[in-house]
Design goal:
- The structure is a single chain.
- The protein has 14 helices and 14 strands.
- The protein is of the alpha/beta class.
- The protein folds into two domains: 2-183 and 356-378, Glycogen Phosphorylase B (Rossmann fold, 3-Layer(aba) Sandwich), CATH 3.40.50; 186-355, Glycogen Phosphorylase B (Rossmann fold, 3-Layer(aba) Sandwich), CATH 3.40.50.
- The strands form two sheets. The protein has an eight-stranded mixed β-sheet. A six-stranded parallel β-sheet has the order 11-10-9-12-13-14, with helices on both faces.
- The chain is globular and about 60 Å long.
Length: 385
């Protein structure tokens, strides 16, 4: 089988966003199964200009060049993508678009004409609140045309129940919506019993940006004596978080790790993971915490509410609620290590069943092949098989 992956972003990127990280996970898994993957992305001009052709995560990567001019650049990019689809129509079996934006429109417009099954992944908040599916873009001919073209997709991959419900509210056919989460490769994360020595330690992995709710986390930490926090990642909020930590007298309890390529090793030094996001689709970090055998304190947002079962493998609280977050952190920090280990084991078992890479690949391959045994959202639950 040959699959064309379309990503309206650079690939790879340092640290990577959720879509980039997920595409790499799927590409590696598909390659192990003998599936040939070609990733198509724009050739964007950043500090280090990537070559037009390359390889990454087991996939061939083709980067489409375009002039760096407003309007004209987008038109050239989309025209070249259309030409690529036409020339490759007999050399690929399916097209998987990883962001429902302008490149998705070209794929959906041409896919049925070229006999290609096009699967469009809808990751969540960006597409539904700022992108083509945002409520403020319903009116006007551009918005109506975009939705009409997207509806030509063979199927939509909704990575959480909340995303699937939002697509149905937007008028997309439930028979074409598949509730199919992001995948995690459990082999990359060894299960462990958490840090052996020292005070209770919470771990956050991800970008240090406002939408991750980290200011609320620091505020809550100040109310839980003895709990330590390690922040792995970089971002625009880093300096503000350091100032906040100083003001609250927390600098000796918060460790800013920065970017790390050894996430599995970092997680091995924690007792539980924390994800205080204001908004998500389905966080790869959440999946990695659970795969590493860590219980999770998470905000009640898309994806997290599907996977974190309170009292079994973690805790849920409302976004921005520092009091509720502090209470969850205090409860987690006070638990005996044996109880944390049991919750961590339950977390790993749950994510293996719902989002393990082999399970997700089985369903994706059936979808690429046009196998209707992959249940539509109306009959599906977020579960394996």
């Amino acid at each position: 089988m040959r699959v064309l992956m379309v990503l309206e972003s650079s690939f790879p990127t340092r640290g990577g966003g959720g879509a980039e990280s997920q595409l790499a996970t799927l590409s590696r898994g598909l390659r192990r199964r003998g599936v040939r993957v070609l990733v198509v992305t724009p050739r964007r001009h950043y500090r280090h200009k990537l070559e037009p052709l390359g390889r990454y995560a087991g996939a061939a990567v083709r980067r489409i060049g375009y002039p760096q001019l407003p309007g004209l650049g987008a038109a050239v990019l989309l025209a070249r993508l259309a030409l690529l689809l036409v020339t490759m129509r007999r050399r690929v079996d399916a097209v998987h678009v990883h962001i429902a934006h302008h490149m998705a429109l070209v794929c959906c417009a041409l896919g049925p004409l070229l006999g290609l099954r096009v699967v469009v992944k809808v990751s969540g908040w960006w597409e539904l609140e700022r992108g083509l599916l945002a409520a403020d873009k319903r009116e006007g001919w551009r918005g109506r045309l975009a939705r009409r073209l997207l509806r030509r997709a063979y199927a939509f991959q909704a990575i959480s129940r909340r995303v699937a419900d939002a697509l149905q509210r937007e008028g997309f056919d439930p028979a074409r919506i598949r509730l199919l989460p992001n995948a995690v490769d459990l082999d990359r994360f060894r299960p462990h019993a958490g840090a052996e020595e020292g005070p209770p330690t919470a771990m956050y992995v991800g970008r240090l940006v406002p939408e991750k709710g980290l200011d609320t986390l620091v505020e809550a930490l100040a109310r839980v004596p003895g709990l330590r926090l390690r922040l792995v990642g970089e971002g625009v909020s880093g300096d503000a978080l350091r100032v906040q930590a100083d003001a609250l007298g927390l600098r000796d309890r918060i460790e800013f790790i920065g970017h790390s390529e050894r996430i599995g090793d970092e997680l091995a030094g924690a007792h539980f993971g924390v994800l205080p996001s204001l908004i998500e689709g389905l966080s790869n970090t959440l999946l990695e915490y659970m795969a590493a055998g860590l219980p999770v304190v998470a905000s009640r947002v898309s994806g997290s509410e599907d996977l974190v079962e309170p009292g079994v493998c973690g805790w849920l609280f409302e976004p921005r609620d520092a009091d509720a977050l502090a209470a969850a952190l205090a409860e987690a920090a006070a638990l005996p290590r044996a109880r944390l280990e049991a919750m961590g084991a339950a977390a790993r078992a749950r994510v293996a069943r719902y989002a393990g890479l082999d399970s997700v690949l089985d369903r994706l391959l059936r979808l690429y092949q046009g196998d209707d045994t992959v249940p539509a959202v109306g009959a599906a639950r977020l579960s394996g098989g």
